[in-house]
Amino acid sequence: MSEPLVEAKHLNVRRQGGLVLDNVSLTLGERDFITLIGPNGAGKSVLLRHLLKLENPESGSVTHRHGLRIGYLPERFQIDPTLPMPVKRFLALNNKLTHDQIAELAAETDCENLLDKPLVGLSGGELQRVLLARALSNDPHVLMLDEPAQNLDVSGQLRFYELIDALFEKRQLSVLMVSHDLHMVMNSTRQVVCLYHHICCSGAPDSVARDPEFIQMFGNEMAQMMAVYQHSHAHDHTHDHDHTHLHEMKP
């Protein structure tokens, strides 16, 4: 078995005296697609920041494979309205990218027509595609996304998740995503991890939907919708791996 790309072991994290992460372990391997789900305040974004090594736990460890490159799409991105920076300049910041490389990134993320536009004034969907292009600029082994479509309308969400799925297939990278739109990403995800301070359940989407802890957390209606959606899309999953992955949702 190959060495994991990212591995968390027995993470414990406290906030204001309470455990936000309680003995959480998670492994991301090559060509994994994991979606992290759970209610608001469950610790999903906290776990993601620790997996990125942006924060250190009270106990436990996070290890990255040597030389690992990660592309990260944060939950929030603040733009200084007084800074009229065009998209192509933003993509080139701290990157030694050629004009052709920037054009390729833009084409891959469907934002060629945005390169000369200022970041300020982009729509939610346009900005997310630009941020995705930026996350891909270092040719990452792993793409980590924190609620990437939360500010998009339904059609924008669907378009964005289809783009992530296409990148997963084309670039042969691994994806770890926090998302509450589980019914929309069902066709992409391979494994769902349900977090509520500890890992409640994990596995393929259809198996997680039958787990009593998932049903207690999200209700029978969501569980039934997941099961029906997964079944109706089963014929599209001929490329799936034998292993499974995890996903997140907000009640």
Mind explaining what this structure looks like?
The chain has 251 residues and is an alpha/beta fold. It has 2 domains: 1-69 and 140-251, Rossmann fold (3-Layer(aba) Sandwich); 78-139, no CATH class. 33% of the residues lie in helices and 23% in strands. The chain has 9 helices and 9 strands. The protein has helices at residues 44-51, 87-92, 99-108, 124-135, 154-171, 182-185, 205-209, 212-218, 220-232, and strands at 6-15, 18-28, 33-37, 59-64, 70-73, 142-146, 174-178, 191-196, 198-203. Strands 5-6-7-3-8-9 form a 6-stranded mixed β-sheet, with helices on both faces. Strands 2-1-4 form a 3-stranded antiparallel β-sheet, with helices on one face. β8 and β9 (198-203) form a beta hairpin. α8 packs across α9 (220-232).
Instruction: Compute the number of structural domains.
Output: 2
CATH class of the largest domain: Alpha Beta
Discrete helix count = 9
The gross shape turns out to be globular
Biggest sheet details: 6 strands, mixed
CATH homologous superfamily grouping of the largest domain: P-loop containing nucleotide triphosphate hydrolases
Q: Write down how many β-strands occur, each being a DSSP E stretch of 2 or more residues.
A: 9
Rg calc? 18 Å
- The proportion of strand residues reads 15-25%
How much is the average pLDDT? 83
| Fraction of residues in helix | 25-40%
Low-confidence stretches: 231-251
Coarse structural class: alpha/beta
Note the run of SSEs as H and E. Answer: EEEHEEHHHEHEHEEHHH
CATH architecture of the largest domain: 3-Layer(aba) Sandwich
* Strand adjacency order, main sheet: 5-6-7-3-8-9
